[in-house]
Amino acid sequence: MRGTHYDEEFVLNNRYYSEYLIPYGGRYLFGGKVLEDANVMCAIGTITRVGRPPLAADEKQAFTRITEHFGKALNIQQELAGKSDRQSVGAALLEQMRQPMVLIDSQRRINYCNRVGMALLSRADMVYDEAGLLVCHDGESDLDLTIAIRELGLVPFSMHGPDFVPADRKSIRLKRRDGRRVAATLLALRPEATMASFGRTPQALFTVFEPGVALDIDPFLLSTTFDLTPAESRLAARIVNGETPEKCAISLGVKISTVRSQLIAIYGKTGATGQADLVRLVLSATAI
């Protein structure tokens, strides 16, 4: 060696220099380790081209300062990456949704699941959590889910081919244990389109809508939204969940004539033209 650089004799007999660095136009390498922990090792370096002298002392000092900044930036990035997705703005929004909401990556890893989504997974009726992965109970449905995730293009486009056009939304039909089919939707959430509200890597938002499954509708929300009385709000919530006026009368312990009078009042306050229209209005108003 000569000073802090390998001399020509060493370079000529070293395969890294003689067979790789110099044939590709490099000669002097200067760098160091920026970050290292149990999972990651990051190094940064600069290569001087053949025919140019090695870095001078002031250039090395400048490079060292840049390296320190890189190290600080990586430490910040790792700290942010270690934070739970539950702390994100997007997770706070999804927690308020009535439908099951599950965030998965391109490998099906479950990164977040709202309260309703956890209930869906715990039922293991159509999908479930298997060691942190979203898995379908039915084999055909599981294949459809795999294809849908791939078509969203959550991984770099280079892995799909130059003509690949990623989808923003995919719908599939999942099979329940009882054989019935349920509609499921996958929505691509890309950081550049969501201001990283759902994390810094592309994810898919998985949700299902099961007809006949009772919805947890807050009567207070109906009251404040449509100016309904507490009794009218309780009745409206039951109607939306598929109960007939006769069954509502039994459940609420009132006469059928009372239910019909309250329904007329509910239609007048909401602008609904009937029970089906009331369901549509309530579902639209209580989407979150």
What does this entry show, briefly?
By secondary structure, the protein is α+β, with helices and mostly antiparallel strands.
Q: Can you put this structure into words, describing what you see?
A:
The chain is an alpha+beta fold. The protein folds into 3 domains: 8-81, no CATH class; 85-209, 2-Layer Sandwich (Beta-Lactamase); 219-285, Arc Repressor Mutant, subunit A, CATH 1.10.10.10. It is 43% helix and 20% strand. It contains 12 helices and 9 strands. It has helices at residues 8-13, 15-21, 57-81, 89-94, 115-123, 139-152, 191-194, 219-226, 230-240, 245-252, 256-270, 275-285; strands at 26-36, 41-49, 102-104, 110-113, 127-130, 133-136, 169-175, 181-189, 203-209. The strands form 3 sheets. It has a 5-stranded antiparallel β-sheet. The protein has a two-stranded antiparallel ribbon with strand order 1-2. Strands 5-6 form a two-stranded antiparallel ribbon. A hairpin with a 4-residue loop joins β1 (26-36) and β2. The radius of gyration is 30 Å and the shape is elongated. The termini are far apart. The mean pLDDT is 84.
In CATH, the topology of the largest domain is named: Beta-Lactamase
How many individual helices?
12
The Cα radius of gyration reads 30 Å
The major β-sheet equals:
5 strands, antiparallel
SSE run:
HHEEHHEEHEEHEEHEHHHHH
Strand content: 15-25%
* Structural class estimated from helices and strands: alpha+beta
Number of strands: 9
Q: State the name of the first-level CATH class of the largest domain.
A: Alpha Beta
Head-to-tail CA distance between termini: 69 Å
